[in-house]
């Protein structure tokens, strides 16, 4: 009986634990993102635009 | 040092062409099956008119909804979006890495292997070879091929990352990494099976476990096959098309980590209001609701990238497609969490609302993003101009009209049918509408949906024509660029210790572990765990204060090191799956069942079940009465309390067959008790002759039904020879079959088949292929037919026995049964209900 109660009780905590883990990761990532330097942000964001040696440059866009 | 690099654009062209080709096939099949819901003749009868009577059949096996719907979903997901995704990944990864794809040989194996898999699927699925699990229907040899080809793709991708000439991994590459790692994990776990032959296997999971694993996979197939790679494509191609960087790189970081962390937990929202344990239902709902934030963050980041470039929306079809595609991403990811709220789900689940939701994602998000990417890439891949902007614009407006017509029609159909099914008649003791009445009332929406789908298909055919003409007007072109070669020490220099045991980071992880222990440890030990976690938190803070740079640089260093990054992504996605699935694997076993325990099938019933799975009946019929009053009123039995479907009732079902859509009614309680004087034969809600006539011509027994006719079930014999092998495999999976040799199995089949066939003869049925047969001759002809095995299975559905606990303190199945018992239901254990 004890085990049954134990099993069912801990299961009720899982959503809260899951949320807690996520929240910690979220806060961590958000702080990290906010502290990212402006120059580094600009460099990383422009990576897709760097491959401009393609001179075919068709009309689309 | 610089070097000249020529990108492998041949692979990109191939994948793009394959995507367009398979996309048209997949959408065409989709239109066909949509019309089947309005006109049953589309299941094969229509060929009679097309061939002027040369082909005569009320239904053709490989054209029925049950077999074609898996072909449609697999074609659209794996063939259309799969090939599109590979085209986008191969194109953008090379350019973001400033390196040619690592191996042309692996690229070739990847391309041709994937196409062979698709061809194999296109042959086996209509032939009825299936595992019976949605989006995971392919048989085990094809599953192995998929895994092997995926590994080839992964090696080629990561090898390219290792060879890159750009130190930082752009955010698009993160999404590709998450896709590769997570899809591999999901696909392997959900396809674990034991083969019984070259074309058949049983999943190793059964019942609830199978349902949980299936929707952990199914939901995340949407997340990591249909969403994350396309988000990577969005983050690369949208800035390219708009010629400006992504709106917020910060937001893209938060978007990525939040999305990969949350998405994996949301699978149980596909099983809301079922007998699934409450904590899993809450878990699915909470995390689905949390998905709103990162999804909309990503959508806004995409749309705001177009700031200052909105004027091009009028003139540039690529921007049109991307803007509309990202908007549909936002709409679909708003609707998804909405449908995951238990009360909304009570109305929407099993109806066409869900189907509409899926298509707003597939047609709106995937389809429009694919078209935008194709129109952008084609001129570059063939070094020319897009053949016709006007045609591309026409494609856009036809597609948009088609999607809106489709989605709105299914909103109306789903909500209307859901409300009608739950409506109680005046007096409050019965339901107002029969199932068929609700089906008939939504027919107009089904027709509108078919028109919407047809419009979308026409649009895509225009796209194919435009791309073909574009290719014809130019010549194949592999881009060559000059790049500065990166020295080895400039990338991937982070040690494992630095990446995972970093000084405040490690403290944070250990502190989190102690907080979790705080929940579980006994009194006093729990307080100690909390204290330790606080101390670790303080230690982490002091470490952070002492060396801020070390900490703040960690993430930047991480994105310059693809292996530690990949490991962290895997940890993030693996946690969610483990927490959901492992408790169920441990606890939900026969020995722990308290309450209803499924009766074992007889050999003939097992054969019938395999036919049920093979015909894809689960595509339209559920076997799960949800814990909702109208459901129990409609499908439960009179006078039996709590007659929803309990977990123990499907414990031995490999695969589980709870279903996800009810085009027909639920059949969980279709069966019944043993017939008087019979050794095996059961009779349930309806007689054997009713089922016989129903499979022959559903309109005869259920006027207005859109179910296909199954004339081949009356001609093909049941595969009895395969049964000993199948039963042996089931026994290995833990199903407590009694010891039987092949003769005993054959005898049991013969006895039950004779009993059913005799009951059919007594009811004066006739065999269409031999209408003159009567009496013993008819019985002997019928007993071997597949229809008899299928009837045996139908009459067994819902059979269970009540079991009690023997006093041992074993963990219980996490089943609402136990809550019911705790609430005072004291019915004696061992009561047989059927």
Give me the secondary-structure topology.
The complex is a heterodimer of chains A (61) and B (834).
Chain A (H helix, E strand, L loop, with lengths): L1 H33 L3 H8 L16
Chain B lengths: L1 E5 L2 H28 L9 H5 L14 H33 L6 H21 L15 H23 L8 H20 L2 E3 L5 E3 L3 H18 L3 H15 L6 H15 L14 H13 L1 H13 L7 H4 L1 H23 L2 H7 L3 H30 L7 H34 L12 H7 L1 H31 L6 E5 L11 H5 L2 H18 L4 H22 L1 H11 L3 H26 L7 E4 L4 H12 L14 H7 L52 H9 L1 H4 L21 H10 L9 H21 L12 H8 L3 H9 L5 E4 L12 H7 L12
Antiparallel strand pairs in B: 1-4, 2-3, 5-6
Describe this structure in words.
The complex is a heterodimer of chains A (61) and B (834). Chain A is elongated, with a radius of gyration of 24 Å. Chain A has 2 helices and no strands. By secondary structure, chain A is mainly α. Chain A starts with a helix and ends in a 16-residue tail after the last helix. Chain A has a domain of 34 residues. Chain B folds into 3 domains: 475 residues, Up-down Bundle (Cytochrome C Oxidase, Chain A), CATH 1.20.210.10; 94 residues, no CATH class; 232 residues, Cytochrome c-like domain (Cytochrome Bc1 Complex, Chain D, domain 2), CATH 1.10.760. Chain B contains 32 helices and 6 strands. A two-stranded antiparallel sheet of chain B has the order 1-4. A two-stranded antiparallel sheet of chain B has the order 2-3. In chain B, helix 6 packs antiparallel against helix 7 and helix 9 packs antiparallel against helix 11. Chain B is globular and about 90 Å long. Chains A and B meet through helix 1 and helix 2 of A and helix 3, helix 8, helix 9, helix 10 and helix 13 of B.
